[in-house]
Write a structure and sequence with these properties.
The structure is a single chain. The chain has 191 residues and is mainly alpha-helical. It has helices at 12-19, 29-43, 49-58, 70-81, 93-111, 120-129, 137-150, 156-170, 178-190. Helix 3 packs across helix 5 and helix 8 runs antiparallel to helix 9 (178-190). It starts with 11 loop residues before the first helix and ends with a helix.
Amino acid sequence: WLINQYGIDITESEVRRRYSEPHRHFHTTEHLNDVLGQIFDIYNCSLDLVPMIIAGVFHDIVYDPQRKDNEEKSVELLEYYTRLDQSVGDLDFALKETRESWYQAEKIILATKTHDKIHDLISDFNKFDCSILDRELPELLKWEEEIRNEYSFAPWDEYKERRLRFLNLSLPNHKSNEKNLLELIKKIEQR
């Protein structure tokens, strides 16, 4: 599988199994494929393709909406699946490049927690990960339903408050879709 080229010993079936867990409704293989497709569209001929692919595969590989450490756990899983001994001192150039890609991917994954835009790769990755916010209203409504299903354990009032906060904070970064986002916000407020 593609990721095995980069020193990460995980099978495609293991990735698909994790993204198909029963508590997932949005953070599924469909979301994974969407993010990876955007990465390939933009970074296909770039040296940054490798860390972006790794981050794409691992950014939601651990996802439990009741936990606050999904990103850290995803990085731990990435580290678990890396095949090189982390204590190796003298690596040839290719292995050093691979290790650097892992570290870049880890930074990108951790930044998805706060959507910080520390550098261009992180900024681009966050755009890919949150590209749903730039979609038409029917897709936004489907997304909202999927996210609510993932957070069905939360009382509606608590979910609503946090969801509206997230969407309102997201508005400045998605001005081109403001009309649809405001309509989504209105529908949530009226529910």
